[in-house]
Amino acid sequence: MVPRLQAEHDLPSAELDAIEERLNCDNRLLTGRDDDRGLVFALRDETGCAVGVAAGYSWAGIAELKLMWVEKTCRGVGHGRKLLDAFVSEAAARGARRVWVSTHDFQAPGLYEKAGFERMAEFAGWPDGHSNIILCKTMAPR
Questions:
Q1: 8-34 per-position pLDDT tens digit
Q2: Measured between alpha carbons, how far is 38 from 59 in angstroms, rounded to an integer?
Q3: Tens digits of residue pLDDT in 123-134
Q4: Distance between CA 122 and CA 105 in Å, rounded?
């Protein structure tokens, strides 16, 4: 059988997750590191609805914060920093030496910088008129 290329822009998330797990299996074999784990903190209102999240993973001595969000009505009172601090603390407890995050200039680079993250790269024009900023926080050895 010869594989054929086709656009599938609405690929079900379960199938995409399964493919990502296959990639992760390859990465584990190639690096000899199988300590990858999800790392997620949620902020919930009194009804149990998520109004904030810090989500990513830890693996091989690093952590990546892939999703950071706080509901608009809950912003500006420290919830983002609380989520970020919890994420970084758990990453450090797992032995991560660095935490990486990507954010846009119109999102929260100041939040990360105030928390000790350093700008490592900035990509102008991502999207047009703005920048994508890569930041990293290096933790002291335990």
A1: 999 999 999 999 999 999 999 999 999
A2: 9
A3: 999 999 999 999
A4: 9
